[in-house]
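Fold sample X.
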Amino acid sequence: MRPAPLTLVLLAVLAGCWLLVPGCGDGGGEPSAPPADKGPKLEQVFNDHVTVETDEGVRKWVLRSRRMEEFAGQDEVLLIDLTMDFYRDDAVFSTLTADSGRAQPDSRNIHAWGNVVVETEDGRRLETSELFYDNQTRLITNDVYDHYTWPDGVATGIGMEASPDLDYFEIKRSFKSEIADQEPEQGGGR
């Protein structure tokens, strides 16, 4: 028995949808690309991107990202897996790392988020979910939970303002701190 002509047409349409028509599925289990009218259009991608900020020829910071993306109509660029080294006297004094971020090319301000850590060469460490670096004031800030450790203690709280070397560090709200007990001094005489 031969299939009816309508059945053949229906099978051809279904086969065409499966093989040729975007959005019907490609059989590979991968989602199809979003339509071009959804969100900003990706214009350029740079792998292993590096930006160096100098002041009168002196290095202030170096920003590295595994991937930098530029989008149509947006001034900011998206950074993936970023590391930002801060310099003093041509030596790194602290390093910021984060999963992602945005950089403003004109102002050089940075917004970092996702497993953000700032660690100094002398062992102080800030852990948080996001922070902002203002290139003009050279301060880092946020309004989220922060966990700050140094050799003699720990401080936690919500919202902070700090210098990248963590010499200046202020927690804004819900401040809690633990300071390690110091060993009593040993006397040398009787």
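Fold sample Y, listed below.
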Amino acid sequence: MASGTTRPPHSATRYIETSFGILSYLELAPLLAERVEDAEVEILERKFAEVPIRELLLQLHERICADLTPEIAGRWRLRDVRVGAHEAPPHEQVPVLMHNYAADLDARLASLADGRGEEVVDVLTFAEGRLLYIHPFEDFNGRVSRLFLTELLYRLELPVIDTAAESTDESGDYFRALQAYDQRDPRPLAEIWRRRIKKILPE
């Protein structure tokens, strides 16, 4: 099974076949970072503002890796994956799961009274936790999820939040929160979102 990029890495170095040959993730990371940065600029320019959620995720994935890993770019994964201790849903379920995810998230966003309070925490917790639970792409799910969350924050008219962990302790808390979400306990991830929002919207 393929490992992923959203949970603690295995000790062994990972390699991936790319248009530039077989690269380690250390070698691939700066190339991805350039493309993620370009996508962030496009989000800031609101180029994705009217794109439906399901298509948005596919477009973001394609945007960051189409020229690097064209065989998997902008496509739901075609094989089963294990991400750390998490065994993601079988790949044949991904199209339906993502259709339902997008519909569910659309409904949650439509029901928000405003971009404040516990309701928005619940929506963002679902948006992040469920997406990473499904793990819809063969690779680069973490990068896509961060871009997607940035777009959602713009749509909610909230300041952009840097969702990257700032310390080893924060990183550990985050991975444990994802593990809890995988076990249907959203509370730790919701608490992380409360802390994220408090940084940009202090009382």
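Sample Y note: The mean pLDDT is 91.
Also: The CA atoms of residues 112 and 120 lie 7 Å apart.
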